[in-house]
Amino acid sequence: MPPKKKSINRKRTASSPPSRSPEKAKRSGHGASHPNPRTTEESGTAKRAYYPPEMSNVQARAYANSELLRPIEDLEAALSETRVSREGIAGGKAVVHWFKSDLRTRDNRGLERASEKAREEGVPLIAMYIVSPQDWEAHLTAPVRVDFILRTLEVLRGDLERLDIPLYVETVEKRKEIPGRILELLGEWEASHLFANVEYEVDELRRDAGLVRACLERGMAMDVLHDTCVVRPGELVSGVGRQYSVYTPWFRAWVAHIHKDPTLLDLLGEPHKNPDTARQKYAKLFETTIPSAPDNKKLSDEEKKRFRSMWPAGEHEAHERLRRFLEERIGEYQELRNFPGEQGTSSLSVHFASGTLSARTAIRTAQDYNTTKKLDGGKEGIQTWISEVAWRDFYKHVLAHWPYICMNKPFKLEYTNIAWEYDDDHFAAWCSGKTGYPIVDAAMRQLNHCGWVHNRCRMIVASFLAKHLLLDWRMGERYFMEHLVDGDFASNNGGWGFSSSTGVDPQPYFRIFNPLLQSEKFDPEGEYIRTWIPELRGVDDNKAIHDPYGRGMATEAREKGYPEPIVDHKESRDRCLARYKEGLGRETA
Fold first, then answer.
1. Residues tagged active-site
2. Which CATH architecture has domain 71-227+271-286?
3. Per-residue pLDDT tens for 332-344?
4. CA–CA dist 493, 399 (Å, integer)
5. For 136-171, how does the pLDDT look when each residue is reduced to its tens digit (9 = 90+)?
6. N- to C-terminal Cα distance for the chain?
7. Inter-residue contact 153 to 121 (CB < 8 Å)
């Protein structure tokens, strides 16, 4: 870790400070919100629409022990069982690619395969995107992320039109009706082949497995390809044939696997241009408009302006941001990546989450900037960044193999019996950045204002919620998803599992982040705190700003309206240790 002074006074944090007070943000409905009213002590979990409260431990263990068919195994079985029949289906009058979380024209396996099939058959390629308000509700998709997706669709439509490929966008109000509507559209277009990329959440895997079989029943072929991960889930197993649940050995296997097969980093180009007749034949499809956000996902005009200036949409922006990062900041990445007051990270997570940039493209491009083709060698900043991007693959692999984490379960089932608190006042203070712990409050205010927060701070605030406040970690997991522009279930769930010690590869439960030490170490001069907490900008003492009430600045902090700490660190730590130990000592159902 660099000396404290060395890392300061370089560049300001990537996102601008708030232009309005937290109270105004709270009143708008999209800033610091109140706890979800369906979160109750009786349920013991943060409920989600369209889902039961929580899977039983018995059923979760059955998935873990391979006694139940995993959703990804069902999809693979559907593809395997139908392969010969699908290959025998004659060409129709069109081929369709279904965009999901892969909103780009370049390096897109499903799109590339669809384009090749259309060229082989001598027919046009039609692109399709289904807007599903119920899916956004079920998956807790943040309004800022919905806005980013819809803006990206505008960019994607323009890119495809340049190739005479129409992008048909339709809203299907009820999520259960999506497969049937897709079958209807394929019939209307007389399409014989449908291509899509895999999404690894449980509902999406089950939906696609059923749609593969339903297509075949109607004489059509659906192919679902692995695209999101550099190495497909299930490929990496330990010496005894088990899936990895710890990152470090998994990463070594991941690197070795790619080194053995470098073609995994081969990149794909744009789809072929459609025949000239496509524009006339599908004129109505080219007239499709991108809908507005559903009422429950709308932003205010002020929020639209703010978020759109922070997060320009589309794959061109993604590639430009990647280029700038590799040319301007990768050299300092290892040194600065943990300092939230520095512009030390790539801020590409929003593009990975929406698929405007593939992990393959990111890693291959970083590899091309390196002095070696080895993913774990060469320039320190590049190899560290590659290892960070790889975490996204890791969490997708975990999701595919242990699907019960999609169902309100902690990865470590022995943590089911921890008695969580459900204190609405504490949760509201955490949400709004008013806990009295400056580094925690600065991070939550950045999240509420930007729809994004630095990864180091994500860990700090998650640990604080789960271990200082002993609030159910799923309440925090939900709040993040409802506010993050880069909300991705697997990565978000994995991060919360790490910080609450309930997930894969976690810190032990007795390792509890001390927010004061974290603040002093990663924001030594208080630059980040002063950016996001205007009440403390007048505190000149770089020691006192981390703990104004404990270091002689109580009067000043109180006069400016900054709250006192809502819990005591030592007492909270002792309570947490006792509560976790007690929960781990009980039998799980």
1. 388, 391, 420, 455, 473, 496
2. 3-Layer(aba) Sandwich (3.40)
3. 999 999 999 999 9
4. 9
5. 999 999 999 999 999 999 999 999 999 999 999 999
6. 44
7. no
